[in-house]
Write a structure and sequence with these properties.
Layout: E1 2-10, H1 16-28, E2 32-38, E3 47-51, E4 54-59, H2 73-85, E5 90-94, H3 98-108, E6 113-118, H4 137-153, E7 156-159, H5 162-170, E8 178-180, H6 195-202, E9 209-214, H7 221-228, E10 234-239, H8 244-253, E11 259-261, H9 270-276, E12 279-282, H10 288-292, H11 296-304, E13 308-310, H12 314-322, E14 326-328, H13 334-343, H14 345-361, H15 365-381
Parallel strand pairs: 1-2, 1-5, 2-4, 5-6, 6-7, 7-8, 9-10, 9-12, 10-11, 12-13, 13-14
Antiparallel strand pairs: 3-4
Length: 382
């Protein structure tokens, strides 16, 4: 098959970590895959490269962040012209932003079948776009309608969670046209490393108690900060770009002296930092945006073989109930759950060991890709 993947956000951010591994797996199986994503470096230039068999096209980022990702004029114009000039069997659109969907609709004129990938709950109360102020309020209204309408117009819908799968069916999309496909764990990129070895390399005392968190999205961390406040020996490590708002939260809670913001960590060092943590955390308040998602960070934790403390929200609750990889805890229980894993080291080690097993045997792309390929064939045959 000849496939075009349209990712709405930057390379090395958000759904890029869903789209790129899919593309690599398909390329390894002999399919011709082009993935378009937004460049972090270039405002006007289009750059092309071949990464593990994938034709990676990075589009200009000028205007990318205007009232939400995906609205850059040069980016959209390039994608539209490409889709109109090329023929693809499948165009896989990673969410509903203009640069992921408008070119897809244009490609349909050339005979492509459209797959809409639903990886986040954007519109409505509690959605990602439910923010107090927008630079262009009309954009929010458009996106609330377009998030759902773009799925109705697609030939097939792939959802990251069972919550969004059910939402798609509720919209009237036939269940045969909806595939639940979680993101795969990065088991090649992130491998378990001995904690003592990792701490020695990074110069961290072996006796220090560390709760870890990873990601560009650093919301709901106040849940963890409040949890470690009565645990004076516990330090919070946030792997990712330093966020002044997170520091301000820590100062308000009174744990700023125990906050470690690592700053940007290259992909090849992520496993090293994850290995430094005794326990990983996945704080999630109960709102639509969190109920609909499957955060990449959980898959990173599984691949690293680390135990996780998480709120019982959406598919996270189901996964941790089905697989012994961590502890579920409501907000008022978070502190006790963290303390338990520090005091019961054998339990923490067992959960961490099983986490890696689940990453390899349940959430590996090797096991997930046949489902996507079957779905593609089903859509093409109709």
């Amino acid at each position: 098959m000849r496939l075009l993947f349209l990712n709405h956000n930057y390379r090395y951010g958000g759904t890029f970590y869903r789209a790129m591994p899919m593309a690599e797996q398909l390329a390894a199986r002999g399919h011709d895959v082009t993935l378009m994503t937004v460049s972090r470096e270039h405002r006007w230039r289009v750059t092309r490269s071949n990464v593990n068999g994938v034709h990676l096209v990075e589009t200009p980022n000028w205007g990318q962040d205007n009232s939400g990702e995906g609205y850059g004029p040069p980016d959209n114009l390039y994608r539209l012209s490409h889709a109109l000039s090329q023929r693809y069997d499948i165009i896989h659109m990673f969410d509903h932003k203009p640069n992921a969907t408008f070119a897809g609709l244009a490609g349909r004129l050339r005979g492509a079948r459209l797959i809409a990938d639903w990886a986040d709950w954007w519109g409505g109360p509690g959605g990602i776009n439910d923010v107090p102020r927008r630079r262009v309020p009309a954009v929010g209204a458009f996106e609330q309608w377009w998030e759902e309408q773009s799925k109705r117009w697609a030939d097939g819908v792939v959802t990251i969670s069972t919550v969004l799968q059910q939402r798609a069916i509720t919209l009237g999309i036939p269940s045969a046209r909806v595939l639940y496909l979680p993101t795969g764990a990065p088991i090649e990129r992130i491998r378990p490393i001995d904690r003592a070895t990792a701490r020695l390399e990074l110069g961290i005392p072996i006796e220090q108690q560390i709760v870890g968190f990873i990601g560009m999205g650093q919301g709901d961390l106040e849940i963890v900060m409040n949890a470690i406040r009565p645990l004076p020996d516990v330090r919070l490590m946030v792997i990712g770009a330093k966020n002044p708002a997170v520091l301000a939260q820590a100062q308000t809670v009174g744990v700023a002296d125990r906050l470690w913001q690592t700053g940007f960590v290259p992909n090849e060092q992520v496993a090293l930092y994850l290995a430094c943590a005794d326990v990983m955390c996945l704080p999630m308040s109960d709102r639509a945006a969190n109920r609909g998602r499957l955060p990449n960070k959980l898959l990173d934790y599984l691949a690293a073989g680390r135990p996780t403390v998480a709120n019982p929200i959406g598919d996270i609750k189901t996964i941790l109930e089905q697989h012994p990889v961590g502890l579920l805890a409501h907000e008022h229980e978070f502190s006790a759950a963290i303390a338990r894993l520090f005091s019961e080291r054998s339990l923490a080690d067992a959960l961490g060991s099983h986490a890696r097993y689940v990453a390899e045997e349940v959430f590996s792309w090797r096991r997930l890709m046949p489902q996507l390929l079957d779905f593609y064939q089903q859509i093409l045959s109709k």
